[in-house]
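Action item from last meeting closed. Structure (351 res):
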């Protein structure tokens, strides 16, 4: 895998994507639920930023808000210097050439009644300057880039395996030459061996095409494999962020430590040698005041102050940010280096 780019933790005018104070609500009035609460992150050109957390943490909601599939209640989303927070439908169609999304389930993200070629060519139909022959050439080129033969354009999704379908979904994003791809759990529905191949494919495409990724996953090991920076979410709020190597090797937040401790290690000896992190308390989450730490009801290090105020994001020793009042007292056990899956020699093989 190619070397990581310079690791960054802040936001700058050079960012391709800049999300500031994002808020997303589901429902209205008193029944509204805040799924994303004051989240900020950025992605630079050619960079991969990992967004990690448990189910229900708001990861996919953030991705969908960025591509315009979910309305935004507050904050701002800037892409290539343009505020697209509330972009109209016509502008969103224009932006789709530069901003694409790969969805989690390769079985439901493709229309079973249409050939692969028809699905991939659909985004190009609005561009009248492209002839049918040129469209076919672009479709075949996209398929070749993801390791599939040009003849695959004449076949239907049911004729492909899960890994091949996810490659087709990736090809669909490439056909319009995007600058940023939001990857929403793109390997979670695949077998482990196929996961490694798809992640290698994403890394190779980034090196070849200069793509930027917002990579969403629940597995911190998978995120670390591809990402230069990581943002850890819990119940819609940022718990920790920073350079991937630093967040993984010296996690500052108890929730990040718990995520790392829960990641499986295929080597039994390495698993036994890994320092144990304190697991969250096994109890139901209770209702806490809105101005409190979201993780307080599960945290073994909780004190009264944690239930009275929302911890601000403060700098950590590894150059990141953490929202924990006691992070300096708690310390962080050093993580082993086995959670990231190895890059196999058969990385370019078609699953």
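Sequence:
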């Amino acid at each position: 895998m190619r070397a990581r780019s310079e690791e960054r933790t802040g936001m700058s005018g050079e960012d391709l994507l800049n999300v500031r104070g994002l808020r997303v609500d589901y429902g209205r009035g008193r029944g509204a639920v805040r799924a994303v609460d004051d989240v900020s992150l950025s992605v630079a050109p050619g960079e991969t930023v990992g967004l990690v957390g448990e189910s229900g943490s708001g990861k996919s909601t953030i991705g969908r808000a960025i591509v315009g599939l979910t309305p935004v209640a507050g904050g701002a989303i800037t892409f290539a210097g343009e505020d697209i927070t509330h972009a109209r439908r016509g502008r969103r169609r224009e932006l789709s050439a530069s901003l694409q999304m790969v969805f989690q389930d390769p079985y439901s993200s493709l229309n079973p009644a249409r050939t692969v070629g028809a699905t991939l060519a659909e985004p190009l139909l609005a561009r009248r300057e492209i002839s049918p022959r040129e469209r076919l050439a672009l479709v075949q080129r996209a398929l070749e880039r993801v390791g599939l033969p040009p003849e695959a354009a004449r076949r239907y999704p049911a004729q492909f395996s899960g890994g091949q379908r996810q490659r087709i979904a990736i090809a669909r994003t490439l056909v319009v030459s995007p600058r940023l791809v939001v990857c929403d759990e793109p390997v979670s529905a695949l077998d482990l061996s196929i996961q490694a191949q798809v992640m290698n494919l994403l890394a190779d495409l980034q090196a070849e095409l200069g793509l930027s990724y917002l990579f969403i996953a629940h597995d911190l090991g998978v995120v670390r494999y591809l990402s230069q920076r990581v943002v850890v979410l819990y119940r819609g709020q940022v718990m920790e962020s920073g350079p991937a190597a630093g967040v993984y090797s010296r996690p500052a937040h108890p929730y990040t430590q718990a995520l790392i401790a829960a990641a499986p290690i295929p080597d039994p000896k390495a698993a036994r040698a890994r320092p144990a992190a304190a697991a969250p308390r096994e109890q139901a989450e209770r209702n806490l005041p809105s101005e409190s730490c979201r993780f307080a009801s599960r945290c073994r290090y909780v004190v009264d102050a944690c239930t009275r105020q929302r911890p601000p994001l403060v700098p950590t020793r590894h150059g990141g940010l953490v929202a924990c009042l006691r992070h300096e007292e708690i310390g962080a056990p050093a993580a082993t280096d086995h959670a990231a899956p190895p890059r196999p020699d058969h990385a370019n093989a078609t699953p």
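Note appended to the action item: Residues 253-330 form one domain.
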